[in-house]
């Protein structure tokens, strides 16, 4: 577990980000173009963090890239079915959930049928809650990577923290916008926003509880959690966020730039992390197996080759 100061800072940032997203529909109108640009940036960030941060750290903890990739596949498939069952991600303002002037009439009708139902937000809330729990597990697992103390712990988890803090407001925005479109009062939407903001820290707490009772298997728990989280991030970015970004002819370049900027930011954070944390545990401690030879046998080989 990271130092108390780091833990409090991380939890505070996550809660604040979630609360801000829920207040957006009541404070100002987020235009369609700005929303699409933000989503493009967040999509790139999630892909970069999943591939460049979580997957290598998971391989380090598991000591095997094969296991890490298997965990990533499990996370991707699991998140895919989660989004299919609960319709998890519907990023957009309350205006877009009620009517989108830029969308074709058929798309607008389908959107209204989905989000105009009084209780349609319940399935969305359940799905987002599961997703937010996984966010908490991802955040806690990246901080649980061994070998760092103090400020380096915060540096190690900067990529995952950035991805979650940037993505969390859109989850809250989606939930509150659908609730407003369904006729839910402001009092209950704000209560739901507060409860949703606490789900991610709850996921962190559940992860640390699991670590405390896992004993000698804690490294495997961390590694699998990181791999699964990487797969979930990829699924969210490629299956939900980016398909929602409509590449209009007039802003295609701007959206592409925002997407690449998110990946580059993740790559930049990757470069400042300690490099040895991206190697499998066995290689870090002992080096590649084919380079390990007893001194006596090595001398003997040289004697035979060079008489």
Q: Estimate the helix proportion, in percent.
A: over 70%
Q: What count of domains describes the coordinates?
A: 1
Q: What structural class do you assign from the helix and strand content? A: mainly alpha
Strand content: under 5%
Q: What's the story with the biggest beta sheet?
A: none
**Helix segment tally:** 14
- Uncertain regions spanning at least 5 consecutive residues: 97-116, 147-151, 281-307
* Number of β-strand runs: 0
Order of helix and strand elements from N to C terminus:
HHHHHHHHHHHHHH
Outline: globular
Mean pLDDT over all positions: 75
Structure characterization notes:
- The chain has 307 residues and is an all-alpha fold.
- Helix 3 packs antiparallel against helix 6.
- The chain is globular, with a radius of gyration of 22 Å.
- The C terminus is likely disordered.
- It has one domain.
- It contains 14 helices and no strands.
- The protein is 78% helix and 0% strand.
Which features characterize this protein?
mainly alpha; 14 helices; globular; disordered C terminus
In brief, what are we looking at here?
By secondary structure, the chain is mostly helical.
Fold blueprint:
Layout: H1 4-27, H2 32-62, H3 65-86, H4 94-98, H5 105-115, H6 120-143, H7 151-156, H8 158-181, H9 186-197, H10 199-214, H11 218-244, H12 252-272, H13 281-286, H14 295-305
Helix pairs in contact: 1-8, 1-9, 2-3, 2-8, 2-11, 2-12, 3-6, 3-11, 6-8, 6-10, 6-11, 8-9
């Amino acid at each position: 577990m990271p130092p108390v100061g780091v833990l409090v800072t991380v939890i505070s940032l996550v809660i604040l980000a979630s609360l801000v997203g829920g207040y957006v529909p009541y404070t100002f109108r987020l235009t369609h173009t700005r929303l699409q640009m933000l989503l493009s940036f967040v999509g790139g960030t999630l892909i970069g963090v999943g591939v460049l941060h979580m997957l290598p750290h998971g391989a380090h903890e598991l000591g095997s890239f094969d296991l890490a990739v298997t965990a990533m596949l499990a996370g991707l498939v699991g998140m895919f079915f989660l989004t299919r069952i609960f319709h998890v991600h519907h990023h957009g303002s309350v205006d877009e959930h009620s009517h989108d002037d830029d969308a074709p009439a058929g798309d607008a009708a389908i959107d209204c049928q989905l989000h105009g139902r009084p209780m349609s937000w319940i399935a969305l809330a359940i799905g987002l809650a599961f997703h937010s729990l996984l966010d908490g597990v991802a955040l806690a697992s990246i901080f649980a990577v061994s070998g760092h103390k103090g400020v380096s712990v915060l540096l190690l988890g900067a990529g995952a923290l950035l991805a979650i803090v940037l993505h969390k407001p859109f989850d809250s925005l989606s939930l509150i916008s659908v609730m407003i479109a369904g006729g839910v009062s402001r009092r209950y939407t704000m209560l739901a926003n507060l409860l949703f903001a606490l789900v991610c820290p709850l996921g962190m707490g559940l992860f640390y509880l699991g670590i405390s009772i896992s004993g000698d298997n804690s490294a495997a728990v961390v590694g699998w959690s990181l791999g699964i989280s990487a797969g979930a991030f990829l699924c969210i970015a490629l299956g939900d966020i980016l398909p929602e970004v409509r590449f209009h002819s007039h802003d295609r370049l701007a959206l592409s730039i925002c997407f690449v900027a998110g990946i580059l930011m993740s790559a930049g954070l990757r470069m400042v992390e300690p490099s040895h944390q991206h190697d499998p545990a066995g290689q870090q401690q002992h080096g590649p197996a084919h380079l390990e030879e007893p001194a006596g046998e090595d001398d003997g080989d040289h004697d035979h080759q060079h008489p």
